Structure formats: structure tokens, C-alpha cells
Amino acid sequence: MNKEKFNIVGKPVVRQDGYSKVTGKAKYADDYQFDGELYGIMVRTNVSHAIIKGIDFSSIENHPSITAIITHLDIGGSKKVGPIKQDQPIFCFEKIVTPGDVVAMLVGENEVVLKELAKKVKIDLEELPVLEDTSTALASDSILIHPQYNSNLITHYPLRRGNVEKGFKQSDEIIEQTYTTQLIEHAYIEPECVTAIPGEGNIRIKIIGSIQNPFTTRRVVASVLSCGLNEVEVIQAELGGSFGGKDDTMNILSARAAVAALKLNRPVKIKYDREESIIESYKRHPYILNYKIGFNKDGKIKAMKIDLLADGGAYSSMSPFVTWRSVVQATGPYQVPNVYTDVRVVYTNNPYTGAMRGFGSPQPIFAIESMMDEIALKVGKTPFEIRKINGFKQGSVTASGQKLSGHEVTLHKVLKKATDVSSFNKKWNENKNSAQRVDDSPKSFMNESLVLKKNDFIPPDNLWKKGIGLALSYRGCSLGAEGIDAAATYVSIQPDGTVYLLSGLAENGQGLKTTFSIVAAEVLGISPEKIIYLEPNTSRVPDSGPTVASRATLMGGGATKNACEELKNRLSKILLKEWKLKSASDLIFANGIVVYKGKRPKKISFDELIKTAYSKGVNLSTIGWYSGPKVHWEEETGHGSAYFTYVYGCQVAEVSVNVGTGEVYINNIWAVHDAGKVINLLGAEGQIYGGTTQGAGYGLWEKISTHNGKIRENNFDQFLIPTSKDIDAIHPFFVEGKDKFGAWGGKSLGEPTLELTAAAIANAITNATGKRFFNLPINIEELLLRKKLYPESLKRGSTS
Amino acid sequence: MKISFVLNSQNMSIEIEPNIRLLDLLRDKFNLTGTKEGCSIGECGACTVIMNGKAVNSCLVLAGQCYGAEIITIEGIEKDGKLHPLQENFLKSGAVQCGFCSPGMIMSAYALLLKNPNPTEEEIKDAIAGNLCRCTGYKQIIDAVEKTAKEI
Question: Which of A65, A447, B4, B94 could pair with B140 as two cysteines, CB 3.0-4.6 Å apart?
Fold first, then answer.
């Protein structure tokens, strides 16, 4: 299937939406303006956990700047929403459970005045103890954050395979370690924005916004308005980044705007500034990861006992799905005969957590990949060797009992490629020999200050230590047993041979408009420039599920290919008849021409053929459908075929660590990914550069911390994401594993690129310093002091 | 108050409220929405424009400060329907993903090339260090600026 010759697939292609984006013409949500539009401004409290006794608007309700005050009383349909558990109110009316909570929305023309008025609303609150950590929230006597459920536990996924106790008995050695990962923000550069416009005709409401999943938004808005799905039209504006982050928040903002717009019969816009965006939007789950691994002297792993505890924050959001991916992938890409895994996610009063690029994989990968290196050191092998011994091969069985078959298992290929191109083994050994191994038990540091003393003087020549580290992963593609997996693409060839394309999946900046155009152009044998990708609109194309889980290329690519092949068949039939041929297999569609290479060769231009087709009344529009094969999961045992196919990746990070200041500089990242067939080389490389950079930020700098549930880092002056100066070089490589799914086996790349980087950097730091670090991010304090430092209060500069 | 200034090579005169920012002036009064707002505190660089030959965060400049100034925005660098080489190379290098940072990023690079037509890689990184991009990892952006410097 990869033997086919391609004309466009796999080559660098300029983005469909590129021209409008480099000229400033692209219209993002806040670039739309509507006649008579009003602004919606949120009313929040200053607490993290409380019962709402009453809200008093009397001091502001007659103010001339207020057109309306919208609360839960204006909602005719669902007052609470959520993708799995409906626990999140559109406007809070019973309780405040986290500081991002909104009790009302002031609507009017002047944002600035409304923001001042919002502070004057009197909210009568009975404050409750703030649950900040997961273990307190799980205690049997803990106060319930959502009293309608009988526990603060959101979900618990067990996975049992073999006999773990027996496995430990048979092991020569056992290591048990605890790792933690931090809360982080998506940090899309465009903050949230949406406008709801009262509909015309049968459409009740039209929504235009920075929306990641238009069909999910439509479902939520329709349920809040208590109307039919076909009465809500959701249009995705050009999206200024999402990374999983413009889902739940945007659905709720859209619903608030819709309720207000219908009440006032005027367009209502909600536009967040960065602070509001960080305070209200969901984040990546912090995890506490406890791993106990038994292995033999030869490095073979015998048993793993894994306990993962995730902080879901105040609302369940996507937590059950995020943590489900963790339970599937917790052992890493290794053959382990005995596994005992528990993954729990818990309600707290912290900012809620949900989908973010990686989706439950970066956390366990950091832990398991750190431990693989620890095991390697114990048995005197290199990180490469220990992974070679234990890594999945073709036909290996995963922890959930799924046999890896039907696709090429390229784990060892990516591992070898990554270690070869980076000269990993040689460098790792050299660095290891120059770094003194320090006791890796975190306990020994508890009472010891690591601040340098006088006699700890380090000569300037010895300040910088080099380290190299690797991380390896496998990743289930698409939704897996999370949900129904299907996607649609509409393709319509116009009489002049130009083409309209529209998929039910959404362009989030990752470039799917371009990817799908390439797929269509390849099948039809035309230039991608002849294709126009239409504005994403829920009224024009079938629901294709959410644009998440790195599923767009796989599912939407498959649907696009199916649609175009159907049209190609129709065109071929015409030629079979005209040219009196027996089989369409000798017809070649390429470079805008259709050629028959038989005894009597024939050819026709694509445009001419389209003219002929129209003259014969042939339908040249169709909707292609692609649905994934059935997968299953047994919740009680954690057994099942979690995903229908997988991708594999290996990243190597080379760093310089300043052992005096704790600074880590990233010299090189080699990223080797099997994403299946690469459709757009430029886009694929872009995914690697961007994903590894985000992963590096996760590993070294990014952290949202809370104080009584309230966020300290609420803008980019404190929440530090990588800049142009933080990474020296990233080297992308592709290994194209064969697969029968998607378009020519084109699979997933967006998330695999991110999930490995922090783990590879952590291992590189250990290689440089001889110390193991257990808590992300490994910022300068962590590196020098093994703890995080925070200001005592939330005050900063001139703001509070 | 009334201010006069040059905007994308055109003389402009406009009555404004004294407390509005250059960013608001561009977006709300002139409908030049290519200049974006990402953080409002001068950290993300999405609102970068050229003011008297230098890259500035238009969220930190009061409109009144622009009296007599020459302002260039992303909308002002495409000439006669032909993309500026920076824009062209951003496209060819894959330097654009979601595109929200692109206008500001291009303006920072534009300011760099105004004063330094042959920048080193380090100088390019310095010039765009105040422009945050969450999608691209900067590599293809730096490539695009390097290519442009070689061409012009």
C-alpha cells in the first residue's frame, strides 16, 4: 500500500489558509463585528468553594450601561452540561466550586463600564473548606464538591493482567518510585471569543467563534436552549490555536452568548482577555504516579504495579477519557506479563482539567521512561538496550491483552533510527562516566539544603554538563473505545474542474484543510490549488465527531479519499464507455490529465472530462464516509482492543545543564515518528517542531500553581512558555510504517510529538548530573533545591 | 483629541478618546484586524506593529503617542497585490499554523530587516523573542526570515 507512487502526497505543500493568515486578512472570532452587537461580561466571586445563598444585583440593575443581566433563570433547557457527566453549570446557582465559576453575565455596549459593575454585584456565600489536593478529596470523610454524587472520585479504571505478586517474587530486583506532573495551560495565543447572532428563518441561533469542535458546541447550545440541533448553526472562525483547549469552555461561552442573544434579540459577543482565559479555561491534569517494577538481571521486566492519581479539578469534563488513555498506555510500549494498574481521577476545587494535546499520555510517559533508565542503570545496560529487550514487536500483546497486528509495529525502527542519528549510545556513555551518580532516592534530600556552600565551589569550566536522554512511546490512534469513530468529507467538482471540499472535522491551525486538499488532489490527479476548502459550518456537512485525539488525518483523510475515489469511479465509468475499455485500472489520473496506457493510448484533460460528465448529467458531488473498526473495553478488568491502530515514536534530547544556576539549555532534539504515510511534509515537520517545543515547555518551565484553589500565573509574564531562544535545534525524522487504515496509512502525529519530549529531557538531565528528578517541571529550583518556590500571596507588581 | 499620523503610507487624521491604545485605534477605528490581541500586557507580541521603524507592542502604546508617527501594520506590507518576501517565505517555509501570531511575528522580522538586512540566526531569534508562538516551535519562522534576508 505504500508502494504507490505519489504526485503530491508526502511533498511540502503551502497551506490552504496561508495567504489570508500572512496578510492579516484571516478572520478570527474577534475580527467579526455585527450591527447592534452587545458584550457579555462575567460576574465571578472571589472564593474557591462556597454555597450560593443569594445574588443581589440591586446596586447595578438600573445602571444605564446594563441592557440585561443573564443568570441561570434565563435558561430554558439544560442548566448544567458536560461531555460525560453533566456537572458544570452554564451559570452557577447552587455552589461555587472553583474560582473560574461564573454566576451571571452582564450585557451591554460598554465592556469597560460593565467590568467595573461586575465587581459590585453582591453575592451571599457560605464558604466551605477548599479541597486542594487529591488525597484529601478522596478521604471518606471529605466534603463533597458535587453533592449529587456520593464521592469525589470521578472515575477509577483498573487493569489486571497475570499475577503481579508472583511476578515480583520471580524478579531479581524491584524499583518503586513516585513521580509528579504539574497543572499547565494550553496557552493558545488567541484567547476565547464567540458571538451569538439571533437566527433568520428557521435557524434560531447562529454561533461564530474560536471553537475547536463545532458539533459539540452545537449539541451543548441546543441542549441549553432546549431546541433541535438543526436550529443551531455553528460556524468556526479561523482558530488561533487550541491544542484541545477550545472545547468545553467554548461550548459554555457559546451557550451563554446564545441565551443572551435570544433574550435581547441582538448579537452578543463574549471576548476573554488572557487573565479570564487562564482563570476559567480547563488545563492539563496534574498526576501523582507511583510505579513499582520488578525485573531480572538481564533487564527483562516481570511485573508492574502502577497507581496513578489525577486531579480533575472542579468539573469532570473529559477526565474519564483522558485517564482512560493513561490506563491503556501506562506500562509504556513494553511487554509486561504481570500488570496491576489503577488510575483514579478526583474532584478538587482546583481549576478543572480536561483535554490537552497529549491527553493522559505525557504524565505516565514521564514516569515510565524515567524508570526504564533507572532499570537500565541497575542492570548495567544502556537506555537503548533496556528498551530493545522489553519493547513491543510485531504481534506483541499489550497490557490490556491486545495483540499488535494489522499494522506495522515500528517501535524498534524508531528507536534505532533515533539513537543512530543522535549517536546516542556513545554520547550517553561518555556523559555518564563524567557525571557522578548521586543517590536517587528523593528522601535523602528532604532535610538537606542543596544550595552550594563555600567549599562547593565549582570551577567555571565544570559548570556546564552535557547530557543525552531518550524516550519511547506507542500511542493508540483516534478515539479508541472512548466513542463512536466516524468522519465525513463533502467533495463537489464544479463544471470547470475546480473543487469544493469540506470536512466535518475542524481546522485548528494544524493544517487539515491542506492535508485533506492534498488527499483529494492526489486521488483526482489535479493540483491542490484547484481545491477550495469551504468555511466549516455545522449546517453544511455531517457530524464527524470532535477534532481531537490526533484523529483528523486518519479519519478525515480516509473520508476524503473515499469521497474522491467515488467521484473518480464515476469519471472512470464515462471513459470506459467512451474509450471502450474493459478495466478502469489502466486509467491514470495525474497532473490534471487522465491517461489510458494501453495498446492504443488515450488521454483527456481533467477539465475536459468534467465538462463531458456534466453534459451527461453525472453527479459530481458526494459525501465520503470513513468509520473505524469496532474496538471494545471491559471496564472491570481493563481488557480489550483499546484502539484499532497505533503509532510509535522516539525522541532523543541533548541538553547542557548549568549545575551552578540550575539552567537547562536544550541543544538538540531528534524526533523520530511513525505517523504512517506522511501526507504533507511541511505540515508534518511543523507538527514535530511545535509539539516538541510544547513538550520542552512542559518539561522545564510551564506550571500553573494555585493558592487556595486560585491561580497564581494568570498571564504570560508568569506562565512561561518557550520562546524562540530556548531550543537550539530540532531534527524531525519520519519512519513510515505500513497500515491499512486512513488515506494510504496516514495516521496520527500531533500528540505523539508532544508526549515524549519532557521525558527525554528529564533523562538527559539525569545523564548530565547523575541525579534523578521526579517532579515536573524541572525548573531551576527543582534542579538545585528539589522543590518549587512560590510567592506567598497572589499579589504581584501593581496588580492584585 | 485629534491626532494625525501616517498609517501604511497614508496620511490620517482622526478624532479619538485620549485613553485608547494604538491597538484599539487600528482594530476598532480603522478595521485593521490583522493586528491581534493576545495578552494585553506586552508579553506575547501578537499586536506588534512598526512605529517609526521600530517594532512596538501596540497594546502598550497609547493612540495619542502616535501623533506625527509613521505606523506600518501587516496590512501595509503587501504592495500592489504582491506579497512582501517575508510573507512569501512564511508560506513556503511552513512558518504559519494557526496564524494568530503570524502578523506580529512578521512585523518583528520586518523591523529587524529594516535595520539589519543580514542578520545572524541569533539576531533573528533575538528579534522575535518577544513574539510567542505556541504552534510552530519557531524553527520554520526563523528559516523564513533567513531566506528573506538572503533574497532582499
Answer: B94
